[in-house]
Amino acid sequence: MKQGTFLRKINRLQLFTASPKINRSILKINNLTNDINKFTINRVNQTKNYSNTLKPTTNNVENIKFKNIGDGNLLVPYFPYGESDFASIRRSKQFYVDKTNLIPLLEESGKQLFFVRPPRWGKSLLLSMLSSYYDINKKDEFDELFSGLWIGDEQNWTPGKNQYYVLKLDFSIQVDGTADDINQRLHTKINTTIEGFLECYGMGGEVSINQNDSFDTYQKLIQLLVKRKGKLMVLIDEYDRFANKLIFENPEKYQLIVEGKRGDPTSSPIRSFFERLKESSATGLQDFRSIITGITPIALADASGYNVSSNISSDKIL
């Protein structure tokens, strides 16, 4: 069975199992399980050098292949379900659907991009792959990570290959407590990420961390990179994760933290952050790029502080 047919069956099953026709649902699940088994076996048989594999039984699918890596004592699933670390998948020689052909298409689409996709689409893995490609620190790992993929062919390389400092952000914070509590968690999250960024690139201690205002910390980071004549890429994974919770659980907090006041770019922390992000392209950096992913465009539209991005959600390249 082709992979596309397999995925369509899963989508049909997800819609079908919401139906009250329980008996037919059970039959459908059994048929799908058989298809998964056949698909797994066929895909592994098509791949060379995987003869040394095991067949453990799992709760969901029997006969999922596991792979020996390293000295043979470590076993990893051949299909990395739920895994979003591109480098780990490649080093473990797990199954990876090659999307590296998107790299030049994304570059041509603009320097500041935004797109939304449903959960489990693969947004985190895509950003992880882009981070590995652009990260100046991973220049020596390029062959290990991309050999055999489309972008691994030298004729497909782009000028941005391993040329950027990469700042990866996510807004996965708790939304309980007061609005001030949530604001402080957001600042702590961003500050912690920037501290990790500085250590990763050998710049620890060169930026003073403002514990109460991570946007000030971010501005100081930009100033440092301008002095170093560096290029910066900001990748934000599911920017609206906590905002979506607030919409349904506490609309009043949502207005304070995300929406703010119309015409005032500093009236909420999210508006303030996107305002700083928008200004990054005019700070003297050698180059600045950003890619923001989310589930819905609602929070970004309400924050309205980042109207310079190109929304590629409906583009056929994705």
Task: Set down the secondary structure blueprint.
Elements: H1 3-16, H2 22-46, E1 53-54, E2 66-69, E3 74-77, H3 86-91, H4 102-109, E4 112-116, H5 123-134, H6 142-146, E5 165-170, H7 179-200, H8 214-227, E6 231-237, H9 241-249, H10 251-259, H11 269-279, E7 287-294, H12 298-303, E8 310-311
Parallel strand pairs: 4-7, 4-8, 5-6, 6-7
Antiparallel strand pairs: 1-2, 2-3
Helix pairs in contact: 1-2, 7-8, 9-10
Gist of the model:
With 318 residues, the chain is an alpha/beta fold.
Describe this structure in words.
This protein is of the alpha/beta class and 318 residues long. It folds into two domains: 3-79, no CATH class; 102-311, Rossmann fold (3-Layer(aba) Sandwich). It is built from twelve helices and eight strands. The strands form two sheets. Strands 5-6-7-4-8 form a five-stranded parallel beta sheet, sandwiched between helices. Helix 1 (3-16) runs antiparallel to helix 2 (22-46), helix 7 (179-200) runs parallel beside helix 8 (214-227) and helix 9 (241-249) runs antiparallel to helix 10 (251-259). The protein is globular, with a radius of gyration of 22 Å. The two termini are 24 Å apart.
